[in-house]
Amino acid sequence: MKYRIKHSTRYExxxxxxxxxxxxxxIPRECNGQRVNFSDIRIIPTxxxxxxxxxxxxxVVCHFxxxxxxxxxxxxxESEVEIAPSEPRLxxxxxxxxxxxxxxxxxxxxxxVKASEFCFDSPMIAVTSELVEFARDIFTxxxxxxxxxxxxxxxxFNDFKYxxxxxxxxxxxxxxxxxxxxxxxxxxxxxxxxLRGLGFAARYVSGYLETLPPPGQVKLExxxxxxxxxxxxxxxxxxxxxxxxxDVMPADQHITTAWGRDYSDVTPLKGVVFGGGGKxxxxxxxxxxxxxxxxxxxxxxxxxxxxxxxxxxxxxPLISPLSxxxxxxxxxxxxxxxxxxxxxxxTQTQSQLPPRNF
Length: 358
Hints:
Layout lengths: L1 E23 L9 E11 L4 E6 L5 E7 L3 E14 L2 E5 L6 H10 L3 H7 L12 H7 L9 H15 L1 E2 L10 H7 L1 E2 L1 H14 L4 E8 L16 E8 L5 E4 L11 E7 L8 E7 L4 E11 L33 H13 L2 H6 E5 L9
Parallel strand pairs: 7-8
Antiparallel strand pairs: 1-4, 1-5, 1-13, 1-14, 2-5, 3-4, 6-15, 9-10, 9-12, 10-11
Helix pairs in contact: 3-6, 4-6
């Protein structure tokens, strides 16, 4: 599946900015099941310097400086990304929770050692007893690990309300837990904190989610938004993504931009300006366009998001969950299905794309 993504960010300042130093995590990364055909970043006004590099986690990051006086800054990124077809994944078998903990404690492979750094606290995620207790009963020693993570994903979806007006990028997890509401960034952080507190490796993933308008309506330009979810490490089987905002395992509608320990590692756009009058107006427009017409009949209700989020007060907005009608239908389907139906199969993106020639 091919997608064209356009992400436009504009800052308007109350007073003149004399210099600005910025870092952007807006260029999709190459990863398992995802190939970036091209990506271009334009900055207005023209920067004095613009450098792309690969960071510690393998993300593409762009550093740029604007050294001429300006009252507005605009960053436009256009990318074309190809996502491999998804296949069913068995959740009820495989490595157990106890086995995953043991390997992360004593694993000797390079991948196990690299993954273990995602077991510890990070700038925005501090493990607390409340987070651990929220998930402890799910992760029994003999339970298949992926089945348990899927159950945690569903618990967050069912127990927390999506509320774009409640939190900002600085809202602590204790407030999210107390209010039982937040946005996709909060839900990803919550899951990661609970998993790390129980001895598992989990990382934060930022990107985009294709949204489709209700039947009979035209999709509005700029109506999409950024999204966030989490990924867990499975020894011997790399990483698996989960989206607690929509209670799904990401497949070919999720496009990965970057991953890290938490949001602070992969903030879409951040920086320092000299001047500006202390106030700014932020506007963001995101378009995720499928270059092939989707067959809606092939997409299950839980995989067809139809709404976008209200903008967050700081940095970029994050995507909304499924519509209330879809959530209700999803929960009804889960309650009526047997465990073998709801727990055995989820979607996983498999790497079936041919290698690129550079």
